[in-house]
Amino acid sequence: MAFPLRASAAYRYGDGWRASRVGVVRPYEQIRGVAPDGSYLRAHDGIDLLVKLGTPVYAPWSGTVIDPAKRWKPWDPSRYGKVVAIESDEPTSPGYFVLLAHLSKQSVKVGDHVERGQVVGKTGDTGNAVGTKPHLHLEIRAPFLIRYGYAGVIRRLDVFDAEPSVRAADPKAS
User: Fold this and answer.
1) How confident is the model at residue 37 (pLDDT cuts 50, 70, 90)?
2) What pLDDT sits at residue 170?
3) Are 172 and 166 in contact (CB under 8 A)?
4) For the domain 11-167, what is the CATH superfamily, name and number?
5) Domains of the chain: which residue ranges?
6) pLDDT digits over 89-123, tens only?
């Protein structure tokens, strides 16, 4: 995986895995607990990179741009805003997906093949990021389900903590 921002970009890490979120939990989303009424408490499914509005976003791997609404149901664009979702075709990560969300601009369209390091959009504050600091929300999803036990609830999800992969690709990591 490559880092989704150029090395010269000014950014910092924001909210990460399982941070508290508001809203109904979708079948493909992580939880952070169970409310007294039995409903699941929604958690953050990715990592946020706080960065200046309009910063170019690069494809972390080569692959095909997909429509997230066809993969994850129900898809709620009001949460993610403008998104580029890429299914990897690289030998080390075939079938893995990356979601790059809250973009101000998408430079590719569904069905396009992108190469690692290609500009796919620009950072923004669309979706439920309106009114927050501009950031890139990044999720990595596996081509298989992972068993999670959390707060006494067992769920099988394709999402996992993206931060270790993002930090490993970060050119500024020490």
Assistant:
1) very high
2) 97
3) no
4) Glucose Permease (Domain IIA) (2.70.70.10)
5) 11-167
6) 999 999 999 999 999 999 999 999 999 999 999 99
